[in-house]
Please model this.
Amino acid sequence: MNEKTFEVFVSLLLLWAGLVTLAFRNRRNRLIGFRVGYTWHSERVWRKVNTFGGLSLIVYSIILLCLAIYGVSMNAFTIAVVVFVVAESLIGTWMAEREYELEELSKEAPDKPPATEVGIPMTSIKPYLLVQLGLLGFYLILVALFWDKLPERVAVHFSASGQPNGYMDRLSGLVVFPVLGWLIPFSLTFLAKDPGFFARLSAGVTRRGWFEFNTIMSAGLVMVFISVLIYNVGVISANAINYAVIGLFVLIGLGTYRLLTVRPDERL
Model:
């Protein structure tokens, strides 16, 4: 599959997702739609947020399709997709919270989910955000230190055998795309700062578990980013990248375990 075909496929996939979201905007369900605590507890909020989500997906998918047909580079296309996903998640969560708070002012508002269990203090989000920011800062400091030793085009993708098969300019490959990748767990952590975010999560998933999961994911991503960086500097071989990826999967397993088992009052 060449780049243009892939871009068209992603655009059509987003278009399909938008149409399905619109089709189910009037029916709360467990599989389709923008699901955070506020949308699940209010039918009106569910309908309004999912109408916005569906329409924005459709409009943006058409824009992406035009970009793909025009022949925009894969780098620019990927940045556009990531920016859209992050922006829609932030706007959708903000809209759900705002609409729910407006509904709370009326007599029809359902009870808001409790922020914490009785007798258990709410886990602070700040340490987890600071750790993730620290990981990114450490990586960017390394990039700055090694910048003059990097070639103009750097390897950013590797085959299963460990051989580089994808290249970018060093700014895009070692700064822009790593920061966009890092933003995913950071955004998921930040969005969960409000207790309403957890109202529809499965039983057993806590704020602490969610924060730890995304922080561990962030650490795993930064580990891979650093491995790619020092490979391009010439410090390690390409095979070491495979070990970094294996390490990422190990961390994903650890993060999933913590997500499903950690209790609100448990400490690492």
Q: What stands out?
A: The chain has two domains: 3-104, 126-261.
